[in-house]
Amino acid sequence: MLFLLAFLFGMGLIDSLNPFSIAVHIFLLGVLKNTNRIAFYVLGIWVVYFVGGMLIFTGLTSVLDGLAGQFTAIPDLVLYGLESVLGVILVVYGLVEFRKKQKPRELRLDKDVSSWTLVLLGGGGTLSDLPTALPYLGFIAKMTEMNTGLWLGCGLLLVYNVIYILPLLLIWVLYLMYKDAIRDRMELVIAAIEKTNRYIIVAFCEIVGILFIIDSIFYYFGSPLQW
Do the beta carbons of residue 156 and residue 8 sit within 8 Å? Predict the structure, then answer.
């Protein structure tokens, strides 16, 4: 359980450094007439990420429960073969992501927006990122692997999502305290986070992918690793 909690906080903190969500957040703080309405944007992010996580978690749990009786019948050779394939996919994905040129996403806003638009903006951006949210998907997979119950899983996902929006809440508080004096510095922070986040994702894919490949290689040589 302690490992799962440590994994939660680690993945949650990494996942919270989402450059696009933070960039939109700061942009909206600078253009909204009432900056307190930024809460609707954060709410949209939180609701979609939590609900999406619950749907993935319950779906994975149901699927694994249904296949549990058949899983033990799958030969180890096949399982380790799938592990090696997944490892190669992660390594290749990391390399492709590393070589990809970063294109900044531009945002334009000519007038104040409604509360529902803010909710949809936050939720829509989060929904588009959800399929590639590797830390979040990794944490959900770990909960499923450890046979975490539904209510405990729900509670852990709640905590994860609170961690996920912490940078947005912190920026909101700082903006209310310092207004325009801090905006230029925040834009520099966005650039740094965008660069750092890219390397974190690449490192995550490469490390996990290489571990999967090494584990399967040791199995093929008759000395499976004991994790």
Answer: yes
